[in-house]
Amino acid sequence: MEFKAIIDAKARNDSGCAVVGVYEDGDLGVAARHLDAQLGGLIRKLHEDGDFSGKLGDVLFLPSATGAAAARLLLIGLGTRSGFGRKQYRKALSSSVLSLAKTGASDAVVYLALEQVADLDVQYRARNVAEVFCAQLYKIPDLKTSVKPKAPRLSSIGVAVADARAVKAATEGLRIGAAVGSGLALSRDLANLPPNVCTPTYLGHRAQALSKDFPSIKTKVMDESAIKALKMGAFLAVAKGSDQPPRLIVCEYRGAKKNAAPICLIGKGITFDSGGISLKDPPAMDEMKFDMSGAATVLGAMRAIVELKLPINLVVIVATCENMPSGGAVKPADIVTTMSGQTVEILNTDAEGRLILCDAITYSRRFKPAAVIDVATLTGACIIALGNHISGLMSNNEALADELQSAGVRADDRAWRLPIGEEYVDQLKSNFADIANVGGREGGACTAASFLSKFAKDLQWAHLDVAGTAWLGGAQKGSTGRPVPLLVDFLINRVRAT
Ligand code: BES
Ligand code: MN
Ligand code: ZN
Asked: Is there a catalytic annotation at residue 45?
């Protein structure tokens, strides 16, 4: 999909389809007002006759309206003018693209970015067009053998803005939105794959393919013997039960001065979490193929950042393996020595995410990072705490937590701060090792993050628990690609702030 900012506040462009917004109560948006005049009052009449109410998300398609420059018109309901904010704007955009894709139009001009949207400047308004359009047009690379439905013809989207200054801002917004879109798509593609395809080895190959496509990424894929040489005892313990060998993947992108401290993004890459010897119950176990979503999203974020050529140094670290039961699998009560030297008593083999991440966090120290952020589908407890709407955010650094939280708000990919601390670490006491890998049911998301914090001392570190947000279940089953938008926004903002 191609996006382009154009100056056209009056709906004069002769595209395949003009997408214009109408508020409730017959209150016309910027472009709709001009269009209504060109059409002799048609839009107002449609509203008066009760054919189009302007309720948020409502759509009315007019194939060929005499008097209009565009071949087709799509009226989009915006709800009330006073209530028109980020959420409503994005809803209006997704209704637009879903309806547009059903028409025969191969190009269209979207006039919705001309509206005032609370808290969104022109750049963000344009960025949302590209992001929402890409996200809504995403198709799961399924293995259905039936004939695939025809792809929509839509290939080029103009975004109308008022003047030359706005064109500049919108062009940058569209560039960012499209990059987020392709990062999201990569991340969703990887997470949606079946676990017999998306193995640790496969993820390694995809990371290598990424640096083929973008030579500015240097990728290193380490195998089991290299991981052994690093003394990642906790990571190796998780991998032991599987026939699939583990991989430690490191992708480096140096967009800034060579010696500038990088941001490290760490992804949990459990390509299937059976629970190991502490085997999970069968219901929804299939969804544990999504347990590599953290890995998928840090790779997706890397892709977006490199596409944007962002002047920042970024290191992505993915620890990936399966968590399986077998004669060789790690057992409850086994004690392992982590790369940091701390010993861990593994009381529950299903709390495997923190075991692979603690070694990845220790490994990240060699990059002398400015900040380390791990992304993981870490705990069911986080879903109980926050539901499926908001990711958990824990950090040992107030400023970093604030940056991530506001990035989530701006990117419509929210995270909510949850606590870590000594009280939670106390729940992880072991009589036999430095620390146990589980701390009881109470505050499960916080004990998991507090476990990680023991390996992040003196680092500026944050943890995103995306167990509830990384995928949807039920009829909508599939990866969401979250938190790619949050991560990209955070990184862009880091560059602006420095
Ligand atoms: N990958 C799971 C967490 C998870 C569960 C994510 C359900 C999304 C949906 C993680 O490895 C896990 O199994 N965590 C356990 C930890 C417990 C044993 C302390 C959990 O949350 O039940
Ligand atoms: Mn588990
Ligand atoms: Zn897991």
From this structure: no
Q: 279 CA distance to ligand 3 centroid (A)? A: 11
* Ligand 1 mean position, distance from CA 379 (Å): 4
Looking at the CA of residue 381, tell me the nearest atom of ligand 1. 21
SS3 267: strand
CB of 348 shorter than 6 A to ligand 1: yes
What order do you get walking across the sheet with 371-376 strand by strand?
217-222, 247-254, 313-323, 263-273, 371-376, 461-465, 391-395, 415-417
State yes or no: pLDDT of 65 exceeds 80. no
What letter represents residue 386's amino acid?
A: L
Chain centroid to Cα 168, Å, comes to: 26
* Residue having the nearest C-alpha atom to atom 17 of ligand 1: 351
Please name the residue that has the structure tokens 């420095």: 498
pLDDT at site 213? 97
In the chain, the domains with their CATH numbers are 2-160 (3.40.220.10), 182-497 (3.40.630.10)
User: Which SS3 state, helix, strand or coil, does residue 395 take?
Assistant: strand
Question: Confidence class of residue 151 from pLDDT cuts 50, 70 and 90?
Answer: confident
Question: Catalytic site residue 477?
Answer: no
Query: What value does the mean pLDDT take over residues 44-48?
Result: 95
